[in-house]
Amino acid sequence: MEKSIEKIWKDAFLNEGELKVPAINNFYERKSMLVVDKLISRLGIEFKILFPLALMVFIINLVMGNGLVWSTLGVAPFVPWFFIAHAQIKSMKSVPANSNCLEYLLNVKTELKRIFRYNFRATIVLIFLTSFPTFLYTYIKQKGKTLGEIFGIDNFDANALWIFAAIPIALILAAILFKATHKLTNKNELNLYALIDDLKTLKKNNL
Amino acid sequence: MSSDFYKQFILPYAGIIIKMCRAYSNTQEDFEDYYQEVCLQIWRSHQKFEERSEWSTWVYRVSLNVCLTLLKKDKKVKSTFNSKEIPNEVMEDIQAFDDEDLNLLYSAIKKLNEVDRAVILLYLEENSYQEIANITGTTSNNIGVRINRIKERLKKILDGKIN
What we know:
The structure holds two protein chains of two kinds.
Chain A: H1 5-12, H2 27-63, H3 67-75, H4 78-93, H5 101-141, H6 147-151, H7 166-184, H8 187-204
Helix pairs in contact in A: 2-3, 2-4, 2-5, 2-8, 3-5, 4-5, 5-7, 5-8
Chain B: H1 5-10, H2 14-24, H3 28-45, H4 55-81, H5 88-91, H6 100-109, H7 114-124, H8 129-136, H9 140-162
């Protein structure tokens, strides 16, 4: 061999600027699909979280001595939520993709915000619907007992009526937790917003 | 991500990405797919870049990973579709450039195993042994030995072709 491999390489790439870079076909479309896919899969995870949550409510009811029937009823509000969550995933998937990339992402963003608002309200309502009858039933069933006696805590002589104070506390905590969790786990959403900003800039600069 | 992410962070390294994709793909169509996938993966993973290494090293590493992953996928598809060896005409379908010697070198490089291909490409791109070791996840001593062995092998393949 006359030439070394180093020389062949160097001679061939003396002017790297002349390298023909392949066109990036639909680069932004592919990125958009990727971001939206991740958002949908995230919704899927949230949907699956409903199962352990329902189980937790069921166990709490059992621990409070509410019996099997009442514990099962306590889980009932989760049933429509399963369907709602399922419908939300479907609605995200059915955002029309035949529009241009920017329009598609803006539609996804609107849909996502609508889902977030809906879920926030639904969480609050669901917690109220689950906790109020539970506490009401506990209060009626255990009438005359102190809070300490209901929960098996010694020297806790508060009136059983105080059990209802747990409802607003739970609602406030749920609202804080919901927003905090969303802030901590909204990486995909931020990617979506960044992509929208990108496309807006590209459109503005006619690129 | 800034709007000119591609221009700013990918295009300056298009050279090595192209060279690497050429070394792992067998057809023009495959090559373009590999290139797009590498660019997409660089964008996808740039948030994980922690500046512990040079950006170029990161680009090399991502390119290599994508090429190896795609190659494995291709192999799977091909082995399910047809277990016979890929015919030579397909292997030669993608011509690197007008340079005949370079095309010969590329076809010789394609006869190496996946990791050796990456090592020799990075060596030809004048990366240090340490940099190559960082990218391929091995030691610089191992790289030194490996490069000598690969060069001998390439020389044999090229001599055979030329003669």
